[in-house]
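Fig. S4 source data, part A: sequence.
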Amino acid sequence: MSILEVEHIQKSFGHTQVLRDISFSLEQGQVLSVIGSSGSGKTTLLRCLNFLETPDGGTICVRGETIFDASDSARLTDTEIRRRRLHFGLVFQSFNLFPQYTALGNVILAKELLAKEEPDYRARKAQIHREAEEQGRELLTQMGLADRMDNYPHQLSGGQCQRVAIARALALQPDILCFDEPTSALDPELTGEVLRVIRELADHNTTMIIVTHEMAFARDVASQVIFMDDGRILEAGDPRQVLEHPREERTRQFLSRFSQG
């Protein structure tokens, strides 16, 4: 059974149709790279998966459970949306760290906020904080930031901030980790730092969806690649087939802008 099944997702903003009949599936441990020009719908797709936007049509299933069905008119509560959002961890291109929290504080914040909704939170508050902090320290150490846990975002480089953001996304143990152009705001050296972390996650069987313009990285790490154009999946398949021998003229035009390494 696929870990993720996305079927016929549609999304419009006003009269502009941003996603048109998007369908794909993902197996446990696979890495899906999503490529395409700006405005092709890549970020909107991730936001729909993460319940930051609501699709106008289609279904999303995770591990056989339908977590979104546009034909279901029942309105989800905020608590239910948060529960379903836990299937996906989202790493934003501009980090989106909270400046008033340290690196460790950013990583453990979501877990502590979610715990407050549990009926036994008051009785277990100290234990919850201790466990969240222990996990946060382990994740930041995994990200190579053992000596930066008490630093605030303004004291960190862009690459370090993005690694904190990855640790934060992993803290809630999502089924699928999503990256929205995670290196677009970084210089080449810092880009390498972040890509190394993502490669390590792939080596550890982490299921991921990565919106990226790093074509050589997509070719080497992805299990499959989809090329989006004008809100549609225009081409999909094996990375080397799509990136080195694309069938569609629009795919070839897009890839002509990038070095394949």
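Fig. S4 source data, part B ends here. The mean pLDDT is 93.
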